[in-house]
Amino acid sequence: MPSSTTPPPAPGASEPISLRETARRLGVHYMTAYRYVRTGRLPARQVGQEWLIDPADLARLREPAAAEPGRRARRDRVPILIDRMTAGDEAGAWRVIDEALTGGQDATGVYLDLLVPALRGVGEAWAAGSVSVAGEHRASAIAQRIIGRLGPRFARRGRKRGTVVLGGPAGEQHSLPGALISDLLRGRGFDVIDLGANTPAGSFAETAGQAGQLVAVIIGVTAPGLDDSVRAAVAALRAAAVSAPVLAGGAAVTSTEHARALGADAWTGPDGRAALATVDRLAGPRAATRTTAQAAQSATQSAAQSAARAGGDRPSATDAVSGPA
Question: Are residues 100 and 200 in the same domain?
């Protein structure tokens, strides 16, 4: 336990920083940093009413976070998170998330290995009748707030790798999967335009046509029976001459063959990591496409694309995506 009797730093040591500055550097709430101190996880000394931290101790605390992105969470946290979310216990659910973060888990891993499995578990429990409709709604509401709190951790400075437009087609009622993948893509350096659930086909086309440096359009489907809605969205994108690859994915799209049958260029893959890898491949040096307005400036290119479409030999993004990631 830290104490006010902890000796001051030796001459020549780094200047100590305040607890508030420590929280800022860690990207956590002030009270979270304070809890690190009170539990002994972060050495500190108290001067009057203020806690002071040696930057070297802060660096040691942060070392586990330098592990491989997407480092997996402890699986025993998933059932605890499901229990807290379905009970409507937001504070308890966040404690599970915070423990994963303080234990060295990064935000990508928290999403892919903790929150996504928890949401899947809630859905399975609801289908089995062990969680009520009310419990499912409580869990979804808490998941939205968790995403809101973790979202800023995915912000990246510097030049962007391109833009990804994504959304659920008409009839799709779930927006959480799109919100999750949007943050994950932002963490990879992409600009993301998330259209949310139940997006009209024309909105996909309008948004993609106006996007700069468009890398891909992702149509995500979680519920069966929406194949026609996906086909309508793809058709609208084709009619608007959007030349970026169109990807179909989500729990209701089960294979490359299924995605292509819906008119998409490729499947996102079976899970979030596969979807990220697919977009990463498309964002190679020659993969990012120009907007429709820019493409229209080149009459030769536009004519070639139109002729290819008319002849049924439209260039396919599957050349850049070799099957499920």
Answer: no
Rounded distance, CA 191 to CA 184, Å?
A: 11
- Residue written as tokens 């995506």? 321
One pLDDT digit (tens) per residue for the chain, 325 residues: 444 434 455 544 579 999 999 988 887 788 888 878 877 778 888 888 889 999 998 888 776 444 444 444 555 889 999 999 999 999 999 999 998 988 888 999 999 999 999 999 999 999 999 999 999 999 999 999 999 999 999 998 889 999 999 999 999 999 999 999 999 999 999 999 999 999 999 999 999 999 999 999 999 999 899 999 999 999 999 999 999 999 999 999 999 999 999 999 999 999 999 999 999 999 975 433 443 334 334 333 433 444 444 444 433 333 333 333 3
Give the global pTM: 0.68
The Cα 224–Cα 253 span in angstroms is 8
> Can you name the residues that pair with 164 across neighbouring β-strands?
192, 216
Helix (H) or strand (E) holding 163: strand 163-167
- Whether 193 and 278 map to the same domain: the answer is yes
Q: At what angle do helices 227-239 and 201-210 cross, to 10 degrees?
A: 40
Alpha-carbon gap, residue 39 to 45, rounded angstroms: 13
**Owning domain of residue 265:** 162-319
Start-to-end CA distance of the chain, whole Å, equals: 48
- In a domain, residue 72? The reply is no
Q: Three-class SS of residue 30?
A: helix
Do 110 and 190 have their domain in common? Answer: no
CB atoms within 10 A of CB 313: 9
Amino acid at 77: R
Q: Are the beta carbons of 167 and 178 closer than 8 angstroms?
A: yes
How far is CA 50 from its chain centroid? 37
Residues 259 and 170 in one domain: yes
Q: At residue 10, what are phi and psi to the nearest 5 degrees? A: -70, 155
- As for how many domains the chain has, the answer is 3
3-state secondary structure of 139: helix
Q: Are residues 95 and 204 in the same domain?
A: no
